[in-house]
Design goal:
The structure is a homotetramer. Chain A is mainly alpha-helical. The first copy, chain A, is built from eleven helices and five strands; from the N terminus they run ββββαααααααααααβ.
Chain lengths: 260, 260, 260, 260
Amino acid sequence: MAETWKTAISRIRPNEVRVRGYDIAELMGRVSFGSAVYLILRGDLPPEPVGRLMDAILVSSIDHGPTPPSALGARSVASTGASQSAAVAAGIASINRWHGGAIQDCAGQLRRIVERSQLQNRSLADSAADELQEMAARRERMSGFGHRVHTSDPRTARLFSLAAEIGLDGPHVRAVRAVEAALVKRGKPLPINVDGAIGALLADLGFEPGVMNGIFMIARAPGLVAHVFEEQTREKPMRRIDPDPDKQEYDGPAPRRLDD
Amino acid sequence: MAETWKTAISRIRPNEVRVRGYDIAELMGRVSFGSAVYLILRGDLPPEPVGRLMDAILVSSIDHGPTPPSALGARSVASTGASQSAAVAAGIASINRWHGGAIQDCAGQLRRIVERSQLQNRSLADSAADELQEMAARRERMSGFGHRVHTSDPRTARLFSLAAEIGLDGPHVRAVRAVEAALVKRGKPLPINVDGAIGALLADLGFEPGVMNGIFMIARAPGLVAHVFEEQTREKPMRRIDPDPDKQEYDGPAPRRLDD
Amino acid sequence: MAETWKTAISRIRPNEVRVRGYDIAELMGRVSFGSAVYLILRGDLPPEPVGRLMDAILVSSIDHGPTPPSALGARSVASTGASQSAAVAAGIASINRWHGGAIQDCAGQLRRIVERSQLQNRSLADSAADELQEMAARRERMSGFGHRVHTSDPRTARLFSLAAEIGLDGPHVRAVRAVEAALVKRGKPLPINVDGAIGALLADLGFEPGVMNGIFMIARAPGLVAHVFEEQTREKPMRRIDPDPDKQEYDGPAPRRLDD
Amino acid sequence: MAETWKTAISRIRPNEVRVRGYDIAELMGRVSFGSAVYLILRGDLPPEPVGRLMDAILVSSIDHGPTPPSALGARSVASTGASQSAAVAAGIASINRWHGGAIQDCAGQLRRIVERSQLQNRSLADSAADELQEMAARRERMSGFGHRVHTSDPRTARLFSLAAEIGLDGPHVRAVRAVEAALVKRGKPLPINVDGAIGALLADLGFEPGVMNGIFMIARAPGLVAHVFEEQTREKPMRRIDPDPDKQEYDGPAPRRLDD
């Protein structure tokens, strides 16, 4: 084992920690965690407005109550007396193709539409219609559309509005809009869900699809810690955890506003 | 299973997601991820300066290169062809008493010193000296002091300076300073490490020790995703991953500054 | 990293695999898997009848339907599209103090009774009564007694009868019987459950309590694989998995006998 | 959640546990663990000789020293102070395409050769040669051949000899032999490794490829428990675990024989 192996993420020396070249002590207090996430995954710091959008993306996915399998799985493991990290790990291990995976699936599908439009010199609307036609033929579903609970996801609208505010107007966001319109024309109207919006935005920000599932893990980690801690401190071990939302009662703070 | 069970974290209704009472769409773009982490774990939004300190705490622990067992374990699992989430989960499951656990251990020890000072109406200096004396008698080590690599951890100084900037001057930070001084008097000088600084700050911010390990998991998640993604995209499967830092070569961006 | 580290489990050389000194090719076909489990954990091969008892212990815990949190957790993770190993790992991570942990807890409590009897030169009956009295005073529960479903666990009786057949008559089995009788005298009759029986038997076979949770993991692994595979091949992704046994219907083979 | 869901694995009633229809108390002491693994995964008990072969297959994979990533990953997690189950779970999560996955990959490739032979009414030798030719064209590697350490794996020979003893002479074992011969003819001789032998045998026993990775998890679980327990009881926390076999020293029992 004489050879060395290489990493481009961090360099640790006595009394010095550098992430992608930046002194971590200099980053602290000067960039948001969202910017640091962008930095460590993309290799460079984002412009400050993009950093704020990254924070918004992370905040949008911080929790979705106790029904997702990541929360249920983490609580189930916690109820056996597991350590906090083992329970959170079970929640993280639940983030896969069918849970959070629509982000990268949608991003990949949008990329195909964008590339088709560029190669064939056609509008995104036509490219989206053609792509959907071909997908229907091979029974492939468009990811990032529709939701079990939300018909008009408030997070989607907010994400697009924040992106517009900072002037982010990339081809993947335009493509996801084109798909939305094409679905209406096909008589199958479906709203863009939060996964679809995040997938489009992250693609326009230059993230590779292969790291998007990881971004969802980062975003959801605080929710998982909160669920595990609540299970550890509020519930008896080995209880049956009913996954039915009608059997779950919210008893936290009443609705309130930031300016309250 | 007729009964309901309760959760105080989030309430999900059609087209509405509320975290601790706040509409998530309203939080997005208005609070940093650090503030949202504070909210979901403490139940209320922090004042904005505290939110920035939370971001700094999370940034301080985002990565420490490939030698910690969480990074090595995550890379080792990734090298077998595991999914991204399974590999990151192995890294999360590595955050325990001996890795990240010093944060909550130190916070608990500092709390004892603070309570001793209050109950006995003595100075923190005396209380710290007494506590260390008793800990020495039962062979208990003070957590949050000393580091394998750093004799003067740049993250510690930066955290304390940021806390001072926002006027955070709580008993646990004063206690950790008192311990530092007491260790010098005992002839065993050791620097406060980043875990000790975070433990003192989180305790002063009102976090319970039982959730601090979880905060470290949240902070380290992006580093774990970065290591797993680098392993997946840059290395061959099933390689031997040498944990010796002398066999690891950093080939990322050269040192640079925020204002470069 | 010039130094070597040591392991006493296996030695691998080209064309030779030895476990605890035995050529694995010689073990194959000559000892049961239960004997090999005994070998790898205890360091020596058991007498053949003990090997058969080990097999019976492993068989006794191979599965307990879909309600234990290990099965539910594994199925929940599997339903997100996780790999088989990630889903089984979540099930393994669910084996802790409150799930499977009664085996080692009971073994530790029985050891205290046995040692008390030896040190004080008193009968196991008296020692058990005293121990239960003291445990009641400090509100400690006896592990390995009572069951949510079974009032007379068929596995317990079978394990003790198999142990008797091979002449295994150790102090921990006698102690667990003494506890059973003492509980009747205290007016709180509870049956020995399968965890209590396994804890007593493994202790009499010389296993340390610290490895007993691991033996339960080994025993339950096939059940977890079966549940994960059934979830993967029979169910839709992301379904709600009702943990209520009244909502689970068995549709496998009808009751049958070995000599059918 | 009014509907029930179905499982064909076990039926639990008060004082009765049935696995695939059999009373578990009747199975205990009468069938080996290998037979019970066959039962729970295939749905029926094997003939007794096949049960013994299952035990041999499980024994063959019980451990391979500390260098496989499953053992290193489990030890790495254990060294952070993780619970035993969390550490073993990390080892299980390491069993994937590149570690243990050759069993099912090889079984799938052999099935193609067997089906080609049946459909085209040609010899296995010709079918194997054609299949290898086509695989070479699309740069697909044959799984289950060659080993980093063993040029002549003693487990492979033993498995085939045990299968021959019980008269198991199925098409997949003949196909793997045909591939071995075809590789010689192609000037690329490679020995069948233990994964290839197990894949061929399990396929001839009627197991689906999709469950073979799980069988490897079951087989390796005792080795993982042994490594985790050794790490917990013999090593200091947070040590650097050198993966280089030259830095690992075996200090267990000297070579010995069953009849010693």
